[in-house]
Amino acid sequence: MASAYSEKDIKTLDWREHIRLRPGMYIGKLGDGAAPEDGLYVLLKEVIDNSIDEFIMGYGKAIDITIEERFITVRDYGRGIPLGKLMDCAAKINTGAKYDSEAFKKSVGLNGVGIKAVNALSSFFEIQAFREGKTRSIEFSKGMVVAEMKQARASKEKEGTLISFEADDSVFGPYSLDHQIVEQMLRNYSYLNTGLTLTLNGKKFASKNGLLDLLTENLQGQELLYPVVHLIGPDFEVALTQVDDSGEDYYSFVNGQNTTQGGTHLNAFREAFVATVRSYFKKQYDAPDVRAGLVAAVSIRVEEPVFESQTKTRLGSTNMAPGGESIRAFINNFLGQHLDNYLHRNKGAADAMMERIVRSEKERKELKGIQKLARDRAKSARLHNKKLRDCRAHYNTKHKLREETTLFITEGDSASGSITKSREVETQAVFSLRGKPLNTFGMTRNVVYQNEEFNLLQAALDIEETVENLRYNRIVLATDADVDGMHIRLLLITFFLQFFPDLIREGHLYILQTPLFRVRNKKETRYCYSDQERLAALEKLKPNPEITRFKGLGEISPDEFKHFIGADIRLDPVELPPKHKTVADILAFYMGKNTPERQDYIIQNLRIETDYVEPDPLAPAETEPAADAA
Known about the structure:
This protein has 630 residues and is of the alpha+beta class. The protein folds into three domains: 16-205, Histidine kinase-like ATPase, C-terminal domain (Heat Shock Protein 90); 211-360, Ribosomal Protein S5, domain 2 (2-Layer Sandwich), CATH 3.30.230; 385-514 and 562-592, Rossmann fold, CATH 3.40.50. Helix 1 packs across helix 5 (114-120) and helix 9 (264-281) packs parallel to helix 11 (327-345).
């Protein structure tokens, strides 16, 4: 029977309640501080972005950041928020100076939400402005005023704004801030704002040469085919070179924002690079051959940018300004002039570029015979392949559920059987591996076609020609939480990183979390993903709960498995490290020969895990088991 629907069901939330109820709309995923995309760093970025905008307008050449455990302070030396508008800027949604495009023409934060989101999601938030010899401050907790300086007071401090906050752990859960991630964020800010000095707990970040410094520092130790090309113009800057690698690697920015998923400007750059090179050499080379080994940092400033989410990781704008020149035409004209001039003046770079294109063409032609055999085999296998249980909806169609499409890659028939019986057949597909896949590190693209399993996986995903044909939005590695399962996961990540890195860059590859324990009594069942959750469940369901340790996915019944791949699915995204290196560097470090550097890394990141011991019903639930080094 349908429930009643009346005026009482219509609710209006104030700004604070809405942000706290739906934080993902404002800062993306919450996270615990382990990944650069976690909302904790979005909060910090929102605060720093306001200070950066002041610098861009010509006010304040320094920003000081201090982090003491989870307490963050950001001090800039810009003009300072007008004292009478301090409350509005901190606690009144859709309020700010950036709606006036003349004052903040190429700003990152244009919607008047950022600082308010920080305020609402912080257990402590204080904003203080210094302006014209006076100061005023307001303190909040979870968006509510705790203390307010009603009247401005005299101050000898330099003009500017100081914001202090601590993210609310009742929203984020247990978390910690990774200083490496913060340092990389500040390093990027320095590359994009030459003349600005950012200081984190006394450590300074500054750049004289912008994106040239970014590429030079990140490609240290790599053999470049030609020196980094650095081109600067109004509203656009690019640094590029090529390495002896078949993939492409990009650092992408819009109005100072690191757009990790690219967008219209990066697509335009990739097209314009190919068009310019073809024009210079007067030959219609294939685009993948032209871009083989390309590494580039691209920064553009547009008026009133439109991003595809509040976290601003992908640009959606098509024009430099509303009603103005298209981004595609702007970048094409820029490269068509400046890159073409560079190639005419630097014959050595042009010759190296030509040599790389020819080599890429040769490698691709050598693959043709293998590809034909592989396609025929894959075509036949698609009709009779028992390893793929497909779904009805696909990501490369206009199906209304395309965003929900998922391919689970499992190890062995028992695990794939559980998932297959539990899955949602409309949107979830399953691909079953036969044991451990091949280690592809250091191998050429031939291996994708010669290895039947990888060829079938590539065919199932439909990514041979381009990742734009991808059939599933999420590719989920579903392996056991043991040594063999971790090894299989590592080998699969190596395969995707080596041959299809864009799947990772664009956020399509995930790892499935499955519970390690089931704790239950006659009234309630709890699934636990960690020792901490297990101990909490034992305490909640005492005195004598039954506990089961899941050793593999195949041990979990289909009836239970449906709880772990449905609405409450837990996925860890596979992401590039916060200190961005090239794909070749990442693969060499983790999969290359056992170097002292990697040994040091393992020792420094060694985790202590507790061995699971079947509980004694008479023993207290909180008794800690003995610890062993993992």
